[in-house]
Structures are given as structure tokens and as C-alpha cells.
DNA sequence: ACAGAAGCTTA
DNA sequence: GTAAGCTTCTGTT
């Protein structure tokens, strides 16, 4: 060994005890063998020997050794019989781990050292001295204060649980004395655990102060009479002997006779197969994977190796892991699955689903059994466990349902059913009205906690399971964490059960699958006016609530995930649902600029217009009624004024619908016209010009909508808070609102929308030759339809004829009925029925399509899109004819609307990649069912449009090669109105 | 304070 | 005739 070399000495025995108490209990799946300390040890050694960036040490060692206590009997017992005499026997589930850690050390191909009559600390001191004499540096892997006396210019310590180096400054900070005075300090303070007496009444603070004052222990004992405090002086004088013997006990021997020289500690590359054999035996799956990757070993080629296990009933002390074990058993290579599922080989996914469901409901949920994580070490331990299992469910608690505004309050995770914990981060105490509420003590600072969590949440080998992932994705992204990979239980449920009764929220899923009602938020934090914010919730209650979420999420995942495979829906989930989540999260985070001045001006104009109409309406009515009240309005119009044609709603009220009022207006009545106009103006004002500015984010100054992925039955998205999928476009007045949606300076908005996508889907799935041809020719589809039906040439076709054909085309998409078409066209039902009959004669494929869809839905209870998305209609067999008819229409529509929704989803999923590949900076902002809105710098507009169009028009490929081309219109402008 | 109905906006 | 969300009014809790 030479200058520049770096020796790592691991305090193996110290690590075992510390890891045992700090890490959550973990057992080998196949037989329940306790392994948490072994796993912690293996992870630590692997980290330390692999990459300097893994740890705070920042250096990969050239030499490495692991050192253990030989037995509890050492020279110190001869010196002082009571030394370590009050140590109780180690916990039962720790005993087998002593031997396993030694075996792990050998599997790592590392020196495993112990010497009879000495403690590990003495060997460490000895090798430290030898390394120092050779001019090399040493790092002791331990945080034991007994070893701090060794710290110096070439010797540091490293705390593997806290990932922290301990050098001279850290020792001084912690104990108030430099390392060379640690012996004297320990001599004074003693150690109750090791039964080192020390001087009664002297603790670390006093000891440090006395050593500062007198220099060292000898000087202190010689001049003890000078101590001013009576009690302290008397105690030191009376216990001087105890102090001296304590000093001998805590002084490490650095001249233990050793057989191995430092040169035998040169760090070797790991023997892949040997190490993997051991790790497989221990069933450390994710570490096995990492080691296999790093060593280029195929774990499938390696058989699990036999290990020797010492049983608690045959072990006779804490240090029994050496020599021949009294009893040993060879453990066979484990299977990959837990015993309950081990028999599944060759079984169907359906059977696995059934097993999982049984298992999920078998173990009851106990909200009292969850853990509150209040310090970084415990958090790290849970993370280590999650890293090991490779699967973790998590959930965040925050201050707002809006992920763009939400402040983190806490975070929960679950690593196995029933094993869940909550990490409070920002809980406050008291009602906070006087001093702003005190922050509850013992919460890990948010930054630190996120720093610890980030590697887990971003680790490619750990699957994160979340219910309603997008919310968490947005919140975590705001904290610089990109969660991946992930599963979303809400989306799995949506893929499995869209259309079946009940939603896909956690409470509903928990009751449906686990037969368990989780704690309701309103029971903890109140609701409405009495709502207090989650940060006011008592941490024990918050733990029960939040950890339960993680626990339930994990259990749901175990139940639901296998059902995807059993029902052949894996690819729908993996290709249409899951990848869209981060896409939407990014869109929501970006938001869109809204010009508040435009809205404010419009609002003023609308108010004026509405006020004028109000005056005129009051004149006509003769009193100041509430125009917004359909009840009052109906009474006035059809009661007092006796207008004709009144009809009743299902609650017996007079109907005052726009359609009805329009009809009256057409007959020359003045009042209904004004009411319709008033409604339009007040609707625009209240829903848009007045409400939208309230959604402008205080920091980003943009509007961030929220897209729901699992809200519709057909696969469409929905938008809320605010809904940006129903911004007016049909009337001139309404369109003005769109001019307020603008691009940032130097940018343009690009709007790209599919032309007639649902009719194209219809032409494709129903295989209608005339429609396919019309789309292939780029012809006017409604004119062609009219021409076919009414034998009128397309050239010079009257607008009314085309309008009727258009209504029929849309009617088909909606699952046509004579009643509906008659309403739409304001024609008698018989006439509408005749149109439909005619239509089916000209396009018999459409009648076949409708009949086939109804029959399919009736047989299976669901229909599918061309990409395999399933939409359920449980009431399709209802004996109620109108219920049945409604379900039939909905199922006909669902295939078309759902397929179109799938197509635009596919486009959205591919869009960001395509733009990036083309080196374009355009960013997707909005989706409105068949339209995508982008924002891009002016200079790139021309290059962006073809890329966007290409992705959208080819979105069905390669899964489905459509027999009808998709067509996309795209335009750029400064605002949404002009771009659309 | 909340729920449902009516009405209106979008694709 | 399909699929959504938001505002206002109204009656109940």
C-alpha cells in the first residue's frame, strides 16, 4: 500500500445492529427469513465499491475490508468484568443475519476479518495506523462514536445510513472536542450501553467544557480541586479511578497482531456469478438485477447458492456468525413469486387475477398499523426497501386540488399490502390565527425529503404506483422530480371498466374491489366553510388517512393489473392511456396566455347589452322579474301572457328552452327574442369573460386547465377548471372570447383539427364505398350524401338539401332515431323516418353496421373501438325500451367517438417526440376532441405545421391501416379565433 | 351548504 | 339522436 491509495474499513458488527434497528423489517418471500440488515449491507457495499458518485465519500477505494467482532469476550472483560455485561441477547430475527452478512462479504469477494480477544474497533484502529504509516488515506464505514478518536488528517468516517462524511470538523461540531480528545471525553461521560462507568453527572457538554478548560483528563484529575461547582468537583474527585479505567476501556488498541497485511485488501472486481448466486438466494431481486447489469452476467445462468442459516434456538450469543454453525440448513433456490402464487406456473392470467383478488381481500386493512416517518434515516430505510422490492405505491397530500397551486403537505408510500408510511412535511399546529400557526416539530424539511425521494421516484427499476397519477406528476414536476416508470390504478380501472356503474376514484375502487371504505377527507379536515386544510390535520390521523391511500392503491394495483392481461387490454392501457399522462401533465403545466384586457372590455360590452335588454324586457312584462329564473319566465310567458305552444319539462315546469323561444320569436313575438338574446349575453359574461380571469395563475400568468383522462365513457378527454373545450365559436359574439386566447410575444398559436374524423371512421368501420370514395376524392361529404339520397347533382345543390343530409350524417354518428332527427330538422317524425329509410337504402352498409353493433353490445355488454378500447353498456338488455334504445344509440356512437378519441390520443402521445426530432420548439397546449392547439415561435410556424399534420394524419398507423384518409386543417395566428 | 334541474357552451 | 362542464335558480338539509 502506498501514498494515494484509499482504504475503506467497514465496521461490520456495528452496521448489523444499526441497520437492524433503522431499517424496516424485511423477510425473504419464500420462507420468511429476516434479511433487512443483510440487504442494507449488500446495498451499501455495492454502492461503495461501484461508483464514487454514489456516496458522499466521492472516492472509490483501492483497498477494502470488512471487520467483525469475534465474540463478546475481549481483553476489556479482564480489565473490567462489567464491560458490556448488561448487553441483552440480540433479537431473534437478527441472529441469522450475523452469519449471512459474513457470507455476503465473501460473496462480494472482500476480506472478512476478526481476531479473537479483540473488538472490531481495535482491528480498525490497527489497520488505520498501518495505512497511515504507509501514507494512505482511510475511511471508516461507521458512525460509532467509539471510532471517532481515530479521525484525523488521513482518516475520516462515513455514515452509510445518512450518506454523510465525518471528519474533524464534524466531530468537533457533534462533541465539542477534536478527535484526539474523544478518549478523554468518553472516559468522563462513560457509556451506559457498553457499561463504561465514566464520572456520574458528567455528560458530553460538561466533559467538553472541562477538557477545554484543563486540556486533558490527566490535568483535569490533577487539578480537580479548582472546579467551582461543588457537586461536579466532588463527583470527579470521588470517581477519578472510574474515569481512568473508563479511559482504558474506550481507548482502542492499534497494535492488534494481524495475519493479513494491507496489500491483501486490494479491491477486486466482483465475481459476477458468485455474487449473483448469493443475491438470488437472498431474493434481493432489484440488487441482483443491478449487479447483473454491471457485471454483464445473465442471472438466469446462475443458480442460487446454498447459504448457512443459524437458528435462534441454537445460537448462543450476538457474535455467532463464525466457525461451524451449530445447525445449518440449505435453502433451495427460491421461485420468483410468493408461495401463494408460486403454483401459478402454466395457469391463466384469469386465475392469477382471481388469486390476487382473494389475497387482497383476505388481509384486512388496519389504519392503526401505519408508520409516521419523522426523520431522514427512517425515510432512507423505507426507500431502500422500495428500491429492493422494485414496486412502491405512493400518494401526495397537498393544499389544493389544483396541482398548479398545491403546496406539498406530506407524502405516503406502501411497499406491500399493509406496509405503508406517511411522511409529514408541512403540518402546522394550533389554529394559526395568532402566530400564523406553529410548524409541527420533527418533520423532515421538504427540500431534504424530496432530495432523498428523488432517486427512488426517478429510478427506472422501481415501478411507482399511483391513483390518479397526473396530479402527482404535475406537483412533483414543479419540484424538479420526473416520476417514472409508473402505473395508474385509476387508468387501469378505466381501461377495464369504462361504462360500468361507479367511477374510477379511489374510494369507489376500494369499495368495489377491496370491500373497504377508506377514511373520508371530510372526516379529518371538514368540508365547505368548516374545511381546515390538510396541514391542520393531526399527524396521527393524517398518517392513517394518507398511508391508507398508498396501501389501498397498492392493493388495487395487485388486483387490477393482472385483469388487464386476463381481458386482453394490456396494449390499450400501455399504448393509449398510460403514455398520455405525462403528455397531459406537460400541457396543463404550460397553460395558455389569456388577455385579461380583452375579456374585461368584452365583459363591459356584454353588461351594457344585457342591461339594455333587461330594461326592454321589464317594459314588455310590466314588472321587474328575474329573467334568469326559468320558473318565473314560464309563468309570465305562458301563464299571464298566454303565449301559444307552451310545453312542460319533466318536472312540470313550463319549458323556456332556446329552441321554443326561437320558434315563438319567428312567429313575431317580441319578448322571446329579447330573452334569448339576454341569455346569450349573460351566459358569455358569467361563464367566460367574468370567470376566465379568475383562472389566470398568479405566477405563470397563464390559464392552466385540468384534463380528466377517465371521466368519459368513450375515451374522450374532458377539461375543467376552467373547461377550455367549450369556448364559444359558433356565434360572432362568442367568437370574440377566442380572441383573448393569445400567443406570447414573438409566438403564434397553431390550431390543427381533424376534418370530419368521426364520419371518416364510420366510412372505414362500416365499409361504405360511396363515403370512402368521397373522402378519397376530397369531396364535400354532406353534398355527396344529399346527392345519393335525393338524386340531386352536387353542382348547384340547394343549401337546404345539403343541410338535411348533414343532419342525417350527424344523426348516424349519434345513433339515429326518427324522433331526434325530426327535432333537429323541425320536421314531422314520419318525414324523418322516411329520410332514414331512404338513407339505409342508399347505404345498406350503415344499417348493417348499426345492427351488428347492437347485436354485439347485446351479446357482450360492451363495444370496442378499432384499437380495442372497451366501452360497457350494462343496461343494453334492459326491459325498458327507452333505456334499451338509449344504450343502443350510445353504443353505436361510442365505437365512432371512441375510435376518433383513440386516434387523437395516439397523435398526442407521439407529438412531442416528433417535434423534438424535427428540432422544433412548438409546444402542445390544448386538446378539443378533434383539435390540437400549439404555441410556437413565429420563425418555426411554417416548419411546424407539416410535422403536426403528418403526426395527426398518420396517427392510426401502424396499428390500423385505415381505408379512408385522415385530413387535418392547420393554421397559425396571433389568437385562437383567427387560428381556428 | 348541497343537490338537482334547466339552460347553454363545445365536439 | 352521442359525449362533456359551468352557471343560475330552486328547494331541501
From TrEMBL:
Domain DNA-directed DNA polymerase family A palm intervals: 734-940
Reaction equation(s) it catalyzes: DNA(n) + a 2'-deoxyribonucleoside 5'-triphosphate = DNA(n+1) + diphosphate
Listed Low complexity bias regions: 332-343
The keyword Transferase is annotated on this UniProt entry: yes
Family: Belongs to the DNA polymerase type-A family.
Record-linked PANTHER family: DNA POLYMERASE I, DNA POLYMERASE NU
Domain 5'-3' exonuclease: 5-268
Protein role: In addition to polymerase activity, this DNA polymerase exhibits 3'-5' and 5'-3' exonuclease activity.
SMART domains found in the cross-reference section: 35EXOc, 53EXOc, HhH2, POLAc
Name the record gives this protein: DNA polymerase I
PROSITE patterns assigned to the protein according to its UniProt record, in alphabetical order: DNA_POLYMERASE_A
GO MF term set: 3'-5' exonuclease activity; 5'-3' exonuclease activity; DNA binding; DNA-directed DNA polymerase activity
Pfam families assigned to the protein according to its UniProt record, in alphabetical order: 5_3_exonuc, 5_3_exonuc_N, DNA_pol_A, DNA_pol_A_exo1
Subunit structure comment from the entry: Single-chain monomer with multiple functions.
Annotated ranges, domain 3'-5' exonuclease: 370-565
E.C. no: 2.7.7.7
Example GO BP: double-strand break repair
Enzyme class: transferase
Gene name of the encoded protein: polA
Species lineage: Bacteria, Pseudomonadati, Pseudomonadota, Alphaproteobacteria, Hyphomicrobiales
Originating species: Mesorhizobium wenxiniae
Keywords: DNA damage, DNA repair, DNA replication, DNA-binding, DNA-directed DNA polymerase, Exonuclease, Hydrolase, Nuclease, Nucleotidyltransferase, Transferase
Region (Disordered): 328-347
